Predict the 3D structure of the following.
Amino acid sequence: MSEPLTTIQLTSSRAEQIFPVVTSSQILRIAEHGTKRAILQGEVLVEPGDTTVPFFLVVSGKIQVVRPAGAADTLIVEYGSGQFTGEVNLLSGRPAIHQIRVAESGEVIELERKHMLALVKTDAELGEILMRAFILRRVELVSAGIGNVVLIGSTHSAGTLRIKEFLMRNGHPYTYIDLERDSDVQTFMDGFHFAVSEIPVVICAGQTVLRNPSNRQLAESLGFNEAISQTVLRDLIIIGAGPAGLSAAVYGAADGLDVLVIETNSPGGQAGSSSRIENYFGFPTGITGQELADRGYNQALKFGAQLMTTKATRLISEGNIYVAELENGARISTRAVAIASGAKYRRPPLENLSNFEGAGVYYGATYIEAQCCEGEEVIVVGGGNSAGQAAVFLAQKAKRVYMLVRSEGLADTMSRYLIRRIEESPVIELRTSSEIVSLTGDNHLEAVQWRNNTTGHVEKHDIRHVFIMIGAVPNTRWLDGCVALNTEGFIKTGADLTAEDLSAAHWPLARPPYLLETSLPRIFAVGDVRSGSIKRVASAVGEGSIALSFVYHVLQE
């Protein structure tokens, strides 16, 4: 066995919470859920990629978590008596990222994953200790870039940005190597036989080489969905993992329902790309959309919900059950459905817009995008809260932020606290009655023209980064007329459904649809996808919880 040559340094000062030592009485309670067994020095307990990963509590001896790399293994942590293994993948059931091996012979208490999950749900004290440690350990791995993925890319590549966002928003740790800046690039190119023209390149577990993979290919390679059964009849399938979908998952799973969430890309929805949400109840200092999504996702996992990273392409009614058909042709059956597929970003009618998406044109302002434009001038298009949050966030790193709105001001569309911050910022310059008329550049955006619609004056600026936040359109085309929609494509529910809607859908029950129920029984719509919904995070979370109260009713009908 090779000796670790490097160790990671904690980015947090909360070592006692990340690597806690449980008490003797807590050890006894854990032991009730598992079995005690001997361990021998040099024994490998878990290999990277293993799909059946137990939970280990060290009684005596020592075990190490390492990232194996031949003679240059990275020691992540060494556990002694009273300490335990595990991080977020132990909650989700995704494959192991690192190796766990015995450094000193002794004894451990071993729990199967299902027994560990039962312990987390039934023992409040231990559940808090374990959940906090699992979540903080994953934060450390992401911060340190200690995972099983290496991404080789360029800041000028839209594919690189897409993959970065996919990994970050799924909380998967990775190492990034920049084509223009890192001297290690040639070593990887020679060792894994790829050309510069093929970037972005993703190397998974030091073996599999993916050249500009789709999000679906990346999820499959990392085994995101391996632990999820596709043959079980579910109580509830939730389509979409934004705030409404995650809320429904938490409440449903907490009350014992078998819940599966199907999400195309990553938890959080549009809210997950918000740089900071400051008017959400309970967070007086604000919270990023990513942090809120991570908390909701981990909370859903805690109660036993599962999340599948794939795309739902249709809903089919088969007698008393519904079937969700997936992009790979797989079919998953369920007794009830909550549609939380949200909305897609609205795109302005610019001729060559698609050429620059991810290469100068963005629809979210997170830390990843902010890194790309540090010290440069940027444009934010839009007059709503999302645009205001983005402008204030980007002003911390950008040289100047031009904010373009078609209206004559912000008072009718933006919260007052954001307007004050924009007015007080020396970096943000508001341009009213203005819109972009052209984008130019080769492989990356290089210049922008915008017009003042009052004066007709057109300005051209050498600006390489534009953030577009002009609202959204409902993500309902995939439903293909399955449920009744309004004229704008949002799903009609409850009292909004007319007699004609119900007749066309062959509504079979004597009762009318419940609040949030669609034109088909036991299919509900929550969040931004629903007609008449209030486009706020708190409203979406509330709708997710309200829908579950009706799901219980319909499952008993």
Summary: The chain has 16 helices and 27 strands. Residues 27 and 244 are 38 Å apart (CA to CA). The radius of gyration is 25 Å.
